[in-house]
């Protein structure tokens, strides 16, 4: 997973570029703390099974089938761990706070 930067003004106006790649979970909301750190909420992340489902199409189809047959079937592909990641203005990780069993973290402030 990754976050991209969209330029609103200046010589790169209208262009996008990578801000941070290979996030440990799904990004949801980015907030600046005003001191050069951006906090990215990561409500959950993929398990090994989930990463395999992304990579192999047939596993995705099996996962979709399981989800339709039993409620919460796709939950096996997710790890029950929420996190918030702090990154600097260049996209370098400077902090990571996680909690096993706590999901739904959509942002953070310092």
TrEMBL record:
One of its GO terms (molecular function) is hydrolase activity. One of its GO terms (cellular component) is endomembrane system. InterPro entries: 6-blade_b-propeller_TolB-like. This is Strictosidine synthase conserved region domain-containing protein. It comes from Taxus chinensis.
